[in-house]
């Protein structure tokens, strides 16, 4: 059964209807300055609120005179948009469920090798690190990763996360300023897995 909408997830269950994740709650708190944990949000609604929060923050910051602040706000928003677009492209190209894994919330169809990709946190003292700290976007639970909450960041497919991270990294590299040496790290559970060659 196909599912549609902007914030959808493939597999046997519609994850957008599941309860909000801890990572989403932390991001919402940093964007809105309040605790959303008692509001009964779903992952889908939280994803929409995060998108709205980034749009609002970039609009609010557009009136500031601090050029660096405006620039990093714009690049963070664009990086998340690029990651979402890359993820949409990957999901459309991988409609077949490769295997099923059991999770506490039920069986989940997986469309590729299980793995993890993320962007490393910027070096301390860099412009991006200062901006992240000032705006509360640093993930205090994992200081080695950039907290980039695109809509696919909790998916199990490593290649899906990888294309999202690469797309976001390319946006940050456009800044040509102090992004603190960030890079993409990729780990796959299958030691024999090889990424498909680029077309």
Notes on the structure:
The two termini are 30 Å apart. A hairpin with a 2-residue loop joins strand 1 and strand 2 (106-110). The strands form 2 sheets. A two-stranded antiparallel ribbon has the order 1-2. Strands 3-4 form a two-stranded antiparallel sheet. It has helices at 22-32, 43-61, 67-93, 127-135, 158-174; strands at 99-103, 106-110, 115-119, 184-188. Helix content is 42%, strand content 10%. It has one domain (15-188). By secondary structure, it is mainly α.
Short description:
This protein is mostly helical.
Characterize the largest beta sheet: strand count, sense, and whether it forms a barrel: 2 strands, antiparallel
Strand order of the largest sheet: 1-2
How many structurally independent domains?
1
What is the first-to-last residue Cα distance?
30 Å
What Rg do the Cα atoms give? 17 Å
Proportion in helices: 40-55%
Regions with little confidence, pLDDT below 50 for 5+ residues: 1-12
**What oligomeric state do these chains adopt?**
single chain
Rounded mean pLDDT is 77
**Shape assignment:** globular
Total of DSSP H or I helical runs spanning 4+ residues? 5
Write the layout of secondary structure elements.
Elements: H1 22-32, H2 43-61, H3 67-93, E1 99-103, E2 106-110, E3 115-119, H4 127-135, H5 158-174, E4 184-188
Antiparallel strand pairs: 1-2, 3-4
Helix pairs in contact: 1-2, 2-3, 3-5
Key structural traits:
199 residues; mainly alpha; two-stranded antiparallel sheet; 5 helices; 42% helix; globular
